[in-house]
């Protein structure tokens, strides 16, 4: 049985690092703060992937690698599965959209602010800062598997969260296999966050 | 109504949402690495880790009090035992032991032989002077401050520096009496 810690350890750590970078180290420089948070995630994704793949044979192609990330890796990380995985063919770019439904109990509590007065904008900002971390994890994981990409998150449909992975390389194999598609079982993904 | 029975660390830990410790360990490691890159000075990183820990501790205490049913501790001795057996267990999944009490009962050491923060971690030579687990000292200090105890928390032993255990010295400086918002004579 793998060692465990409470989820609140992970949540507190993440909340605090986002807060430190946004309010202390790079106050008024959200771009820089975001990049640092993403870099931390990237490091985690990279190391986790290396560890998880040590005992496995190399992936035969990119599709297998992506499936691993979206199923086994994601599940190990978040104990849930991705809701929906789609490929999007448009102008020779292949896009994967994974959609996770956020937990409706996402709370924003702030000592200084009443949550009801926090504007939608600020909430979006706070949420998106946190999301740089899992985006970094995914980018780190995929890069380690030899699939360079850019990963971003879109929370305009909160509590749903769309993670967008754009792959730089053209994956010809995907064109051939796209008829089969990638079936990922639908389970609800919960990401409970406390912001303060 | 009978008072709620305090719950054991094991019982609480079994009932909270848990995550893979490896994710936590790697995340913490990545954070320390990034801080070293961005802040450059080891002393500054130590300071920031402690500050971050403090910020976490002042909030984590709420979860601790809510889940443990611990009533007000009679004295600092009891406080230290509760931190070691319940606090560490319900969050980090490991227990600590309490030793090295001074005669007044205001200073002791928390000993951690098993520490998830440092799994697979080795410090390079370039990190001389780094207290890698300094976030823990901040957490303890912050949490205790929220229950009216002002403390000084310092590392005595650090396994990443070659010692055989992690030893955190907790010294009670001042017990701040509860302040009531309204004066009696108003």
Automatic annotation (TrEMBL), chain A:
Residue intervals passing through the bilayer: none
SUPFAM superfamilies in alphabetical order: Ligand-binding domain in the NO signalling and Golgi transport (SSF111126)
PANTHER family listed in its UniProt record: GEO08327P1, TRAFFICKING PROTEIN PARTICLE COMPLEX SUBUNIT 6B
Similarity comment text for this entry: Belongs to the TRAPP small subunits family. BET3 subfamily.
InterPro entries, alphabetized: NO_sig/Golgi_transp_ligand-bd (IPR024096), TRAPP_component (IPR007194), TRAPPC6/Trs33 (IPR037992)
Record GO biological process: endoplasmic reticulum to Golgi vesicle-mediated transport
GO cellular component: cis-Golgi network; trans-Golgi network; TRAPP complex
Protein name: Trafficking protein particle complex subunit
Automatic annotation (TrEMBL), chain B:
One Pfam short name: TRAPP
Annotated SUPFAM superfamilies: Ligand-binding domain in the NO signalling and Golgi transport
Protein name: Trafficking protein particle complex subunit
Signal peptide: none
The protein's assembly and partners: Homodimer.
Domain of life per record: Eukaryota
Family: Belongs to the TRAPP small subunits family. BET3 subfamily.
GO cellular component terms, A-Z: endoplasmic reticulum; Golgi apparatus; TRAPP complex
